[in-house]
Specification:
By secondary structure, the protein is mainly α. The chain has 4 helices and no strands. The chain is 72% helix and 0% strand. The N and C termini lie far apart (73 Å).
Length: 127
């Protein structure tokens, strides 16, 4: 029995959507980190990390993880119906997004890990 409803046929398109949201989160993290460094130099001292940095880093990691979990769920659903996720064009796009998302999740994990490390260059001094 094959489910041919529109939502079932287009649900693989959620995978690239969440992958793009994860990539957007990394971009937002980069911009927030650059703004934080500029504020530290203007202040001539260390400042605490902003909530935007944490939100973008953890949000990107959450989106990357949802991408992996969603693809796994779609693959299981397709397997129960004796089909393959990549049968249609939405599935092929989902597979391509998964291939891109795997290294992105590794980068997102590194960014979250890096947030909790001490500053490698030490405190900022304008002397």
């Amino acid at each position: 029995m094959t489910d041919t409803s529109t939502s079932a046929r287009h649900s693989p398109l959620l995978v690239p959507l969440f992958a793009l949201l994860g990539l957007g989160g990394l971009t937002a993290y980069g911009k927030a980190d650059d703004a934080h460094v500029a504020a530290e130099w203007a202040h001539c001292g260390d400042l605490p990390l902003t909530w935007q940095i944490y939100l973008s880093a953890y949000g990107a990691l959450a989106c990357g993880t949802v991408t992996l979990a969603l693809f796994w769920w779609l693959a299981r659903r397709a397997r129960r119906r004796d089909t393959w996720v990549g049968d249609g064009w939405p599935g092929k796009i989902a597979i391509a997004a998964l291939v891109v998302d795997i290294p992105l999740v590794a980068l997102q994990l590194f960014v979250v890990w890096y947030l909790h490390q001490p500053s490698p260059s030490g405190p900022i001094s304008c002397v």
